[in-house]
Amino acid sequence: LDIETKWCPAPGCEYAVEFVVGSGSYDVNCNCSYGFCWNCTEEAHRPVDCATVSKWILKNSAESENMNWILANSKPCPKCKRPIEKNQGCMHITCTPPCKFEFCWLCLGSWSEHGERTGGFYACNRYEAARQEGAYDESERRREMAKNSLERYTHYYERWAANQSSRQKALGDLQSLQNDKLEKLSDIQSQPESQLKFIIEAWLQIVECRRVLKWTYAYGYYLPEHEHAKRQFFEYLQGEAESGLERLHQCAEKELQIYLEAESPSKDFNDFRTKLAGLTSVTRNYFENLVRALETGLNDVGPSTSQSTGIKNTTSKSLGGKSKTGKNRASAAGSKSGSSSRGVDDSNIWTCDQCTYVNPRSAKACQACDHQHR
Where does this protein have compositionally biased stretches of type Low complexity (predicted)? Predict the structure, then answer.
């Protein structure tokens, strides 16, 4: 085997990580629990490629977004050309010192030439007349484009950041569970900790899925808008995975708390075990489908999603398996999944009555729980 070694890039970590060259995914895990990409040493970002991650990180910190904001929300002072933000309803603008030039926000003319005869404080007859003649069309078009671009970026960035925040919170909850809550639950429910591993597995899955979901928003930002079929299929798979994750997270966070606060063993704790383990498995499958689709460039989508989902029936492998030696994670594969509620023709899919997992029509049994299709 061709094995390479690198120092873990996590702050304060002194471990070295081994990697088997040519073994598939570049995502590796160090013994310190930090996951990173072997190729670019950024944090683990599967299923998004290194080039996309590099562009996204640069965009998040670049001046380009500041300039977009300035273009969308400000205008240059007609005298000193510095960008001025309008923060009140009045069109009478005074530039900041030392300039202090007074001008009209709409037509950018000197305010000394304005007054009641030009429309007053909240309008500008000169601007309206010039606009009708097309004098301001180009500058307004550029400002509108910048505003739309900024709103689109904000949409993806906020969701990227929200999943990062949720992942950090989940990591904290997992650590708290391992440090003391699992022992407490073991005492309350009169079960050995070895029988409670399903809870740890659920939280590990949540942490991994939050990471994957975070990076799918960077992927979505750079997915060409003109590729409508791919975009529809991507949003469909992403939505199904996100819904599954929310159900799992809700169960692991809220419903677990009921049993932690109980004073004696609960009769329905085994039902909770079955539910949480089932949700963990189903959510893993949803994310395997999403990861596989993105890693293959959404090539499984047909020419028109109104005619076909492009679903293929393939065998699933595990997503996000942890390697103590730092070797790469297992690659993900799986059938595309989802429901007809997201704009995809339901003639090619069926929903499991038992676990709600969405399967390709060709599957005779549910790929999540093995329940037979009727």
Answer: 312-344
Q: Sign of the C-alpha dihedral, residues 225, 228, 229, 232?
A: positive
Say if strands 349-351 and 358-360 run parallel, antiparallel, or are unpaired.
antiparallel
- Which residues, in sequence order, are bridge partners of residue 350? 359
Separation CA 262–CA 159 (nearest Å): 35
- The better pLDDT of the pair 29, 145 is held by 29
3-class state of residue 35 by DSSP? strand
Decide: 287 and 243 in contact? Cβ < 8 Å.
no
Q: Is 310 left (phi over 0), alpha (psi -120 to 50) or beta?
A: left
Catalytic one among 90, 104, 107, 366? 90
Q: What is the end-to-end Cα distance of the chain in Å, rounded?
A: 47
Let me know if residue 61 belongs to a domain.
no
Whether the CB-CB separation of 276 and 202 falls below 8 Å is answered with yes
Residue 281 is part of which domain span?
Answer: 170-300+351-373
The Cα–Cα gap between 193 and 59 comes to 45
Compute φ and ψ for 318, nearest 5 degrees: -75, 150
> Helix, strand or coil for residue 256?
helix
Beta bridge partners of 98: none
**Distances, alpha carbon 179 to alpha carbons 34, 175, 200, in Å:** 19, 6, 12
List the Cα angle 204/205/210 in 5-degree steps: 105
Nearest CA-CA partner of 308 in 357, 346, 356, 359: 346
Evaluate whether residue 293 is within a structural domain.
Answer: yes
CA 304 – CA 228 distance, rounded (Å) = 9
pTM here is 0.67
Average pLDDT of the residues in 273-302:
91
| Residue 90 known to be catalytic | yes
Q: What gap in Å lies between CA 298 and CA 284, rounded to an integer?
A: 19
Q: How many folded domains does the chain comprise?
A: 2
Q: How far apart are CA 229 and CA 204, in angstroms?
A: 33
User: How confident is the model over 11-33, as a mean pLDDT?
Assistant: 86
Q: Which amino acid is at 171?
A: L
Query: Phi/psi at 104 (nearest 5 deg)?
Result: -90, 130
- Lowest-confidence range among 100-109, 158-167, 210-219? 100-109
Domain assignment of residue 92, yes or no: no
Nearest to 313, CA basis, from 374, 240, 236, 366: 366
